[in-house]
Input
Amino acid sequence: MKVEEIEIFAGKPDFGFTPIRRLEVKCEASNALMPAPTIEEANGRLRALAAKVGANAITEVEYNSGVSFTSWKSLKASGLAGIKLSDDATCDVCAETIKRAATKCRYCGTDRTPMAAEPMVPAQTGIGHVHQDAQEPLRDNNNPAIIIGLCVFALFIFMMIIGSA
Output
């Protein structure tokens, strides 16, 4: 499954869904002249994290913009990665694809009992399917604090060298 094909849904899903793991991303402008991060940028980073855990959908997505410690322009996005369950099933008699909730096959007319939904498993499942409550949220952050910290440290060393000369 391609990263672009991972679906994003706000709110609780109205379809069968197996949760895998919570996701959190933080997008920031590294300086005041840069444009504010967009929802599209946050969604792209959420999709990249979801692909790492083998998800094909992200639900309960929320966006919060504001100010952070290192940036005046910050956008946080969070959601629940998981596997969207298939609505289709295979008829036991004729092997045609029909809706899982069907009580009668539309091809051969066989009466059937509706089945529980099964997950649409992606081709590559990444690091595996672990229930979302079992782990900390998977986080991604483009926070420039490390770069700022290294610059301040380098400036401090430079001032120490000049001061001792």
Remarks:
- The chain has two helices and seven strands.
- The radius of gyration is 23 Å.
- Helices lie at 39-52, 145-164.
